[in-house]
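Duplicate of #3305? Posting structure anyway:
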């Protein structure tokens, strides 16, 4: 995983990314002991997602999409 080898100040992940979801990516990064702050974004409110993000030490930001 390239991201684990690069020094980043912040990582922003979406819950629903095309290949791998944001929570799965965060789990993989945390298993590699990456301590970089991770923020999870989503257009949907889901308490279980918020709980999972919190357990991974992530910030959770809800993004509302309007048209």
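Output from current build:
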């Amino acid at each position: 995983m390239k991201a684990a080898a690069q020094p980043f100040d912040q990582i922003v992940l979406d819950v629903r990314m095309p290949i791998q979801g944001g929570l799965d990516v965060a789990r993989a990064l945390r298993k590699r002991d990456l301590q970089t702050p991770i923020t999870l974004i989503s257009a949907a409110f889901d308490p279980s997602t918020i709980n999972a993000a919190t357990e991974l030490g992530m910030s959770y930001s809800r993004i509302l999409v309007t048209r």
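Confirmed duplicate; merging threads. The helical segments are 2-5, 22-31, 47-55. The first helix runs from residue 2 to 5.
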